């Protein structure tokens, strides 16, 4: 690990900008990734990328582990729900990362898409062909895939202006007095753990609408509709209101139920087709492990 004391040249710079000077030849996004993964500390503590350096601060930093990136097509049995010349809708299995990244360089959804589809948009780079939005590794369900750059731009714009309809189903702890509600709480990186997200006053706006679908003893099945799309949004918001998602090892109860990951499924998605301008909407069944657990709750 390298160390440097902040001098007049670095004083008052944002940490992420200063790191581009220390990581010679590396981009600002690389610096941000180093901060997120805990590779950078100021006076022994992890801080935000926007931290303003002070004269005399000690910066400890190290490089990310370099790993080769293999983007060969692989038959991963990705369910294709719909496909035309511009877009595809896929049903992502549990336990699968959407695209290669730190710690997950193989057997991602992208590897499977390269096998299943002849064309994928390239506008988001070689690591994310066709990808316009993501869901977590242990979240299942529907994703829009862009097969060309025109479609990628059109779908991304709808995600940006919140005109897409994305509905999830989640099993959460506890019971609700209300039948529906709205959570409006900003989300940012957890200052104590850069791999997690948290509700914070200085975070980005995050809005989740929810309604109760079914009440069980000690649990509730809800539908969530995203107005924004922040990282881990539903999981963070439900934990914030003391109804964490069942099976969530990061934001849930200390004693985790099951080994399938969080009971969270991207069930339906709707958007305007980027070429035809027609509204399209798709729905999916809950995965088998999710349905089986609900059945055990019915028997209680």
Summarize the structure in words.
The protein is built from six helices and 14 strands. The protein is an alpha+beta fold. Strands 4, 5, 6, 7, 8, 11, 12, 13 and 14 form a nine-stranded mixed β-sheet that branches. The chain is globular and about 65 Å long. The mean pLDDT is 90.
Number of domains: 3
Average pLDDT for all residues:
90
Number of strands: 14
CATH class type of the largest domain: Alpha Beta
Strand content: 25-35%
CATH superfamily of the largest domain: Pseudouridine synthase
Number of helices: 6
Structural class: alpha+beta
Computed Rg: 21 Å
CATH topology grouping of the largest domain: Pseudouridine synthase
Q: What level of helicity do the residues show?
A: 10-25%
Question: Which CATH-level-2 architecture of the largest domain?
Answer: 2-Layer Sandwich
What is the multimeric organization of the chains shown?
single chain
Through-space gap between termini: 54 Å
Q: Name the poorly predicted regions.
A: none
Largest sheet: 9 strands, mixed
Shape: globular
